[in-house]
Amino acid sequence: MKRNSTFLITMLCFGFAFFYIPILSMIVYSFNASRLATVWGGFSTKWYVSLLSNQQVIDALILSLKIALVSATIATILGTMAGIALARFSKFRGRVFFSGLVIAPLVMPEVITGISSLIFFILLADWIGWPGQRGFTTITLAHITFSMVFVTTIVQARMIQTDRAIEEAAMDLGSRPWQVMFDVTLPVISPAILAGWLLAFTISLDDVVISTFTTGPGSTTLPLLIWSKVKLGVTPDINALATLMVLTVGIGVIAAGIILNRAEKRRLAEERMAYRSNA
Asked: What tens digit of pLDDT does each residue of 107-153 get?
């Protein structure tokens, strides 16, 4: 038993090292004074300073943040409604077909989704003259279509675990269905909604494949800019940019974890108080 435990711990450490040592190396070499990414030339922060004066990077970052914010918000709204429908309405016409539509993007390669979106926008432009050109709108719509699936899955799983007796008790006390939805259901599943929004935001922010097919001239997102630069060779400024992205995502994950943990504790405390009052 002890031997198996030692083996599992060793494999776990190896796995963490395999994933995080390259990231740590990238962070260290982002402070490299040399223009060669793999040759240490001394400590320097000049690449971070140069990023602040690089208008191309700033424009790409602003565009990526706008797309991620809009697509994550809309995807969360649509995904939440779909997740509630699948969890609470077990029998309705077309449920199997609807469930298949939800699951399909999860198993479909991103390149297929990107090509399908490109063909769809080209056909729309031929039929109704919209969109006139591919850019912010087309990328956002494609990201919504792809990321709302993850929100639906998270919300549906949360709804299945939620005790329906709480909603039924609220209706027995005179609350209408829409009141139960906003006063009971949504607060209970709010951690899942927040987790779905964060996942949709992250997926949109770092997407390359789908954005490649749905973007147009003058609409280069930050991942596409990084990809275009990496094809010419990794430079310390790319390491600095990637380090800032890792730092931002890390702070976001930690903050979200704290918020979700506090929300879950608050929900459990309220449930215990409600049960005690009914008892």
From this structure: 888 899 999 999 999 999 999 988 888 999 999 999 999 999 999 99
> Residue 249: which CATH number?
1.10.3720.10
- Residue 85 CA to residue 18 CA, distance in Å, equals 41
DSSP code of 34? S
Would residue 47 count as lying in a domain? no
> How many helices (H) and strands (E) are present in the chain, helices listed first?
13, 0
Measured at the CA of 186, the angle between CA 180 and CA 188, to 5 degrees, comes to 100
Is residue 34 one of the residues assigned to a domain?
no
Three-class SS of residue 43? strand
Domain that holds residue 81: 55-278
Contacts of 162 (CB under 8 A, 6+ apart): 185, 188, 189
- Total domain count for the chain? 1
State yes or no: cis peptide before 223, omega within 30 of 0. no
pTM: 0.84
CB atoms within 10 A of CB 144: 22
